[in-house]
Amino acid sequence: MRKKRICAIGIGCLISMAVPGAAVFADAPLPSMEAPGGEGSAPAEESSSSSAEGTEAPSEREEPAGPGEGAAAAGGTTIIRDSQSRTDYSEIGPGIGLDKNAESQNQENAGTDFTTLTVSDPVIKPAEKYSYEQMKTDIEALKNRYGTAHMTVNTIGTSADGREIYDIIIGNANAGKHVLIQGAMHAREYMNPLLMMKQIEDALAFYDTGSYNGRNLSDLLNQVAVHFVPMSNPDGVALSQFGLDAIQSADLRDRIQNCYASDTAAGRTSLDFDTYLTRWKANARGVDLNYNFDALWNNASSTWLLPSSSGYKGIGPASEPEAQALVNLINNGCTWVAVLNYHSMGNVIYWDIEGNQVKAKSQHLAQLMSAATGGYQMLYSGGGGGFKDWLQLKDNPVPSITIETGKVDCPMPLSEFENVWAQNRAGWALAADFALLY
Ligand SMILES: [Zn+2]
User: Smallest Cα–Cα separation from 5: which of 330, 400, 389, 388?
Assistant: First the structure.
C-alpha cells in the first residue's frame, strides 16, 4: 500500500499499486424502487433468472430493451428525470458545444472543428471482431505513426487469463485534470473498443490542427489528460469473439464450461455452447464486472448467484482483477473530473443512482452528451455494484455516465458502427471540455 497519494501516471505499470478496500457503502440505504420493472431496477433483474442468454431487457442491468425497442421502450418503464430539462440548456449553466457565446469567445485562433475532418489512411480500421490482439498491434502502430509526445501507454492490471489492461493517456499526462473513458467491461459489447481506438486516433491526428467547441485540441489536452481504457474485460472479449479456445487457462476453461452447465440446468439459457459464448458478458471467471464494484454491493441486484455468462456479482467488491485495475487507476491520486463508460446497446445514457454524491455534475455531463449524440435518452439506473455507481457514491466522488451505444443486440454487426461512430465520435473531447468547467 502506498504511503501517500501522488498522481501516479506516466510511470509505466501501475499493477502493483494495490489499494485495498475502497470505501465501503454496504451500509448505505438500498436504492429506492423508483423504476419498478425498469431495465435498471432491482426487481427486474432479480426476476430475470431465465434470461442469461440475453434477449436483452431483463438480464441487462444497464442495457435497455432488445432490438427495435431501444430507448423508447426503456423509457416507458424507467424513470426519466430529464425528458424536459435535457432540452433546456439555459438552465444548466455554461454549455459545451451548445453555448454559442462560449464558442465564439474561444474561436479566435482556433483550428478546424475536428469532427469535420477525416484521418487519411487511418491506422484504426473497423472490423467485425475488433480483437485484443488487434488493439495491441494498433497501439504500437499509433505510436509509430503519431509519435509518443502526446500519448502515454500504461498497463493498469492483468486479466484473469493474463491479458494486459491498457490505459492510453492522450495529452499532458501531468495535467491538473484527468478524465477516463472505458469500455468493453461487458464482453460482447466489443464495438466500443473500436470506437475508442478511433477516438484516440482522432485526438492524435488532429492534436495540432483541430479544435472542439472553439478550443484548440492542443490547448484542451494540455489542460486535461484523457485516459482511454478501451478494453476493461479483454478475456471476455476474446471469449465472445473466438470461443473457448481463446482462453489459455485450463482452470478458466473448466469454469466457463461449468457456467454453461449451471445456466443450462437452471433454464437460464437454451443456446448451444458456442452461441452461448458469443453472448457472454462476464469476465473469464464468470463474474459480471459491472456488479463487482463497492457500491451498495451487499444489496446489489445481481441476477444470479453462481458464476455465469452474466449477472453474477462475485464473492466480494472488486474481487476481480479487472475491477481492481479500474479502482486502482481512480485511486492513483489524480484529480478525476469525469468518467465515461461505454456499454451497448440502446442509445441511452444512465447518469444517476440513489445517493449520487455528484448528481448535478453527472446530470450536466449527461445533458451535454445527450445533445452531442443527437438525442440519446437520459435514464436513471438502480441496482448497484456498477463502476459508474461506485464513482458516484465513493469518497471523492467523480461525475460519471454510462453511454449505451447502438440499436441492435450484442454482439453488434459492423453495419451498426457508422451510426455509433457518428453519434459518439466527439465524446472524449466533450468530456475533456466538461472538465474545464469544474
Ligand atoms: Zn454493458
Answer: 330
